[in-house]
Design goal:
153 residues; alpha+beta; Alpha-Beta Plaits; 4-stranded antiparallel β-sheet; 4 strands; 39% helix
Length: 153
């Protein structure tokens, strides 16, 4: 659409089904590259991506021509098929329902990217549940505990 301009930065977070620790270091780089291809193929810009064995963080320059739920569904469905087709996981791999999407300003890009890149260090001090609930609270998102990811800590 002519004369339509935007700069939107989103962090998207979602988990492996049942929070199983299925994302392995040996192949997570290939998963990240695959997901980056989906994101950028849809006209968005991948700013940072990293995962822990049981969840993933994406930080993107979001183009509002694509609805967020549709983008997340495409990423989950396609990457799930990618993991299965490459037989990366010995267990049944799938993503949990739901996701978190959080917006940031341009000035926050370096800090958010660094945060995502340093997930391993961050999770040495804080569980995913603690991290996710902290994000919900920080962004003042009203939530119901029964609709959060399945946390088995």
């Amino acid at each position: 659409m002519a004369n339509t301009y935007s700069k939107i930065y989103l962090q998207i977070v979602f988990a492996v089904k049942f929070r199983e620790a299925l994302i392995q270091k040996e192949w997570k780089g290939r998963l990240h590259a695959y997901i980056t291809g989906i994101v950028q193929g849809d006209g968005h810009k991948m700013l940072a991506i990293n995962s822990m064995p049981d969840h993933i963080h994406l930080f993107i320059g979001y183009k509002p021509t694509h609805l967020i739920p549709d983008l997340v569904e495409e990423i989950k469905t396609s990457s799930n098929g990618f993991v299965k087709a490459n037989k990366f996981s010995k267990s049944q791999f799938a993503w949990q329902k739901g996701y978190g999407a959080f917006s940031y300003s341009r000035s926050q890009i370096p800090d958010v990217a660094r945060y995502i890149e340093n997930q391993e260090l961050h999770h040495a001090k804080k569980t995913f549940r603690e991290e996710y609930i902290d994000m919900l609270r920080k962004f003042e998102v009203e939530y119901d505990e029964k609709y959060l990811f399945d946390f088995f800590e």
